[in-house]
Design goal:
alpha/beta, Rossmann fold, six-stranded mixed β-sheet, disordered C terminus, cell membrane, ATP-binding, Phosphonate transport system ATP-binding protein
Length: 273
């Protein structure tokens, strides 16, 4: 379980990115993190894995307070946290397999990673993960030869190669088309369910969050202003998170877009026949 207690982050400029955020994410729960730009979503995720040092509060992964760790202990604890990035963060000139194996860097001696001589069990596990994310036939391709959706699948496999106890996912669909976005979110939720793996997903697409998340937390100006089930995300709740907007019209627009996409697929299928 991940527990945040009074987590705050104030920058040297005096800007408060997070203010006394307290929440828990139990085993197996997939939590969507929503809010306007600048609400503190990415800062929250980066505080959890200590890419950003919080100003105050506690971050408990199990019974370990990540805030109090020195560099050596922090490196060991980060192996427990898988990170999936919006821009994939792959090494473009390396193969898909080599990128997945980089998820084992925290477990192998430097000379093995430098020479790319990973232990046999790590290689076997990487093949299994590539098969799970649907990329087994692309193992020897360079990362820069892949589509955006394929790159995100490599990022998922790399994070799972760590054998993490928690997944942090930062806007996984921001650079993807609607169909690929749903495929990626479906894959993430299935994998988390299979492994009982808790996840925090920073996601800007509210309908997508409602479709796939078990729980949604809304941030505004660094504070939690909503915490509940997707079906509790009412007009008033969305207004509290984002401000005034015609949410019914937006939802109607999303429905019309989904219908248009379905009709386009049907036309393509008809042409193929």
């Amino acid at each position: 379980m991940l527990t945040l207690e009074g987590l705050s982050k104030t920058y040297k400029t005096g800007d408060a990115a997070l203010t006394e955020v307290s929440l828990s994410v139990p085993k197996g729960q997939i939590m969507g993190l929503i809010g306007p730009s600048g609400a503190g979503k990415s800062t929250l995720i980066r505080c959890i894995n200590r890419l950003v040092d919080p100003t105050a509060g506690r971050i408990l992964l199990g019974d370990v307070d990540l805030v109090r760790l020195g560099k050596a202990d922090l490196r060991r604890q980060r192996r427990r946290i898988g990170m999936i990035f919006q821009e994939y963060a792959l090494v473009e000139r390396l193969t898909v397999m080599e990128n997945v194996l980089s998820g084992r860097l925290g477990y192998v001696p430097f000379w093995r990673s430098f020479l790319r001589r990973y232990p046999g069990p790590d290689i076997q596990r990487a093949y299994q993960l590539l098969d799970r994310v649907g990329l087994i036939d692309h193992a020897d391709k360079r990362a820069d030869a892949l589509s955006g959706g394929q790159r995100q699948r490599v990022g998922i496999a790399r994070a799972l190669a760590q054998d993490p106890e928690l997944l942090l996912v930062d806007e996984p669909t921001a650079s993807l088309d609607p169909k690929t976005s749903r495929q990626i979110m479906r894959l993430l939720t299935e994998i988390c369910a299979e492994r009982g793996l808790p996840a925090i997903v920073n996601i800007h697409d509210v309908p997508l969050a409602q479709q796939f998340m078990q729980r949604i937390v809304g941030l505004r100006a660094g504070r939690v202003v909503f915490d509940g089930a997707p079906d509790q995300l009412t007009h008033d709740a969305l207004t509290a998170i984002y401000g005034e907007e015609d949410w019914n019209a937006m939802r109607q627009g999303d429905d019309e877009q989904s219908q248009a996409e379905a009709e386009a697929r049907d036309r393509m299928a008809a042409l193929a026949r």
